[in-house]
Write a structure and sequence with these properties.
Shape: flat
Order of helices and strands: HHHHH
Strand content: under 5%
Number of strands: 0
Radius of gyration: 36 Å
Number of helices: 5
Region (Disordered): 1-39
Protein name: DUF3618 domain-containing protein
Organism: Posidoniimonas polymericola
Biased composition (Low complexity): 14-27
Oligomer: single chain
Structural class: mainly alpha
Helix content: 55-70%
């Protein structure tokens, strides 16, 4: 490769149309055009990156794109929310007294456990209620659209 052709790359590097040329083969017009192209490419790339980032952080897009993974994740979350079976340990009175004296046993009243389960149950009930209302609203909307398109709940009106 000769030294004069070293910079002939993607955008071309012949002399400028106005008769000016530089030692590397790029005139002011070509340099200005190249800078404009780079700016346009950069703006387009930044806009595409911004759109892609917005899309990736939208949970609805992710559920549509990966429905099985979303269902699996929902099942995993649901499974983790279900409390496990309580472990029942039987011990003699003397064993319990010695563990309490040693500070290795802490006794918690049943009322506190019931309150904790009540909070979880209440939260799940609230989420379930919101979901049921959303389903009912959607069903009502679809039924309303169906009724509007057919003209009546009992089919088309008889012609006279």
């Amino acid at each position: 490769m000769s030294a004069g052709n070293h910079h002939n790359g993607r955008y071309g590097a012949s002399g400028s149309s106005n008769g000016h040329s530089s030692s590397n083969g790029h005139g002011p017009d070509q340099l200005s055009e190249r800078m404009s192209r780079v700016r346009r490419d950069l703006e387009r790339d930044v806009e595409k990156l911004s759109d892609d980032a917005r899309q990736v952080t939208d949970w609805r897009y992710l559920v549509k794109r990966h429905p099985y993974a979303a269902a699996g994740l929902a099942a995993l979350v649901g499974y983790s929310l279900v409390p496990g079976k309580k472990q029942i340990v039987t011990a003699s009175r003397s064993d319990i007294e010695s563990l309490v004296r040693a500070g290795k046993l802490q006794i918690v009243a049943d009322g506190q456990g019931a309150q904790k389960a009540g909070l979880l149950s209440t939260s799940l009930l609230a989420v379930g209620t919101v979901a049921a209302r959303a389903v009912m609203a959607y069903a009502g909307k679809r039924i309303g659209e169906k009724l509007d398109s057919s003209g009546s709940a009992f089919g088309p009106a008889p012609s006279e």
